[in-house]
Structure formats: C-alpha cells, structure tokens
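Mods, move this if it's the wrong board.
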Amino acid sequence: MMDWGVYTWGLAATLSLGVVGWLVTLPRNNVNLVDSLWSLFFLAAALAYAGAGEADGPRAALVLFLVALWALRLATHLALRNRGKPEDRRYRAIRANHSPGFGWKSLYIVFGLQAVLAWLISLPLHAALLSPAPLGVLDILGAALMLAGLATESLADRQLDRFKSDPAQRGRVLDTGLWRYSRHPNYFGESCVWWGFGLIALAAGAWWALLAPALMTFLLLRVSGVALLEKDIAERRPDYRDYIARTSAFVPWPPRRASAPSSREAMP
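Not the wrong board. Structure tokens:
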C-alpha cells in the first residue's frame, strides 16, 4: 500500500543530500561528485522510508542491507574513479550549454534533477520497506537477482579499471571477460539490481512498483547509458564499429561471429 506521507520523506532526503553535494562542488567548478551521490540518494531515501514508516521485520532488514551494499559499493567505486580527474565531458557539455551562471543552475539542472529521479526510482524500496507481509519465494528470487546483478556490475567495473590502468592497453578495446559478451555489462548488472528490488516489492504486493525498474532500464538503454556513450563513438573511433557489430549492447550474449579479441580501439 502506498503511503504518500512516508514517500514524501524520501524526496526530502534525496533533495537534502543533493543540496549538500551541490554546496561542496560550488567552489570547485566540478560537478563530478554527483556521480558518487547517485547511489547514495537511494540509500538516503530508504533510510527515510524506514524511519518515517517505522519499518521493521525481516523484509525491511533485507532491503536495507541490500541497498546499503549496492549504494556504498557504487559510490566508493565512482569516487575513486573520479578522484583528481577534470570534470567529465558530459558535465562540461551541460556547463557550456547553461553558462554563464552554471554553478548556481547546477543546483537544479544536475543535483536536483538526479535527486528527484532517484526518488521516483526508489518506489520499490518504499513498497518493500513498509509492507507487513511475510517473506516468501519472490523475496528470495528478488534478492538473488539483485545480488547477481551487483556481482556482474562489480566484476565489470573491476575488469574495466584494471584494463584502463595498464599502459600497455592504451588505445585498445576491452573485449575480454564480461566485455566480450556485452558492450555494457555494468549497465546490465545495474538493471538486474533494480529488477531484483522490483521482485521484492512485488512480493510485498506492490505490482505498481515495477514501473521503477522499467524506468531504470529505459534510462540505461536509451538516455544516460548505452545511447549516450555510443552516440558518436563510431564517428570518433571508426574501429569501434567492429566491436559494436559483433557484441551485444546490453544483455550478455556470445559474439555474433568468431573473432580474436580486438586491440584497436579504446573503451569510451
């Protein structure tokens, strides 16, 4: 059952965290921090739901554990990846399109927008945390899918980090490990994480909460994930076309034709 009062507390939590993050980045002229805050928005919302709704019981404990595990892992990974780096080209483009005054505008263009989006996608967390229904088979399946997605995402990130840190791989494409079967295995893992939470919400009787993982998957495929990263990569890096031609974009799948691993183009 939807509790709009408790759900509003989640929005207050994500917006508050967004404002804090914005204040930190304001004097730095670099909004990369919002990448690390993305997963923490969900943790903040979950804690707000649990507190305002006085959530207890095994399902609440399970969901809070899973959310914290995912959020802290991803936030740490992105913080380490962005440490000491210049502002990402995505945000440089947004800055250029909204200057002058981007520093102030980034409060709602970057931080506010992501805080509200995270709040909307946190719907399964709200439903699962507030449900008094006992744990069942769907909860187990949802937790298993979520953990499988987390493992996939973590392994893909580790493989990519190791590849990028090797000077011998400069100018080459990572098409081994999970990246042999999917051009974006980390995004596939992320989608599985949210469908896992969706199954737990479904076990709690909240079928409408499945709109959230559907939205997350759409964003990963068509907006901020695959589509954004590959928007112009074939023009900028022609040899990447071969990797696109033989490798699934999202769902891991055997390459469309047998070929030796390519070493001609860098990952985006």
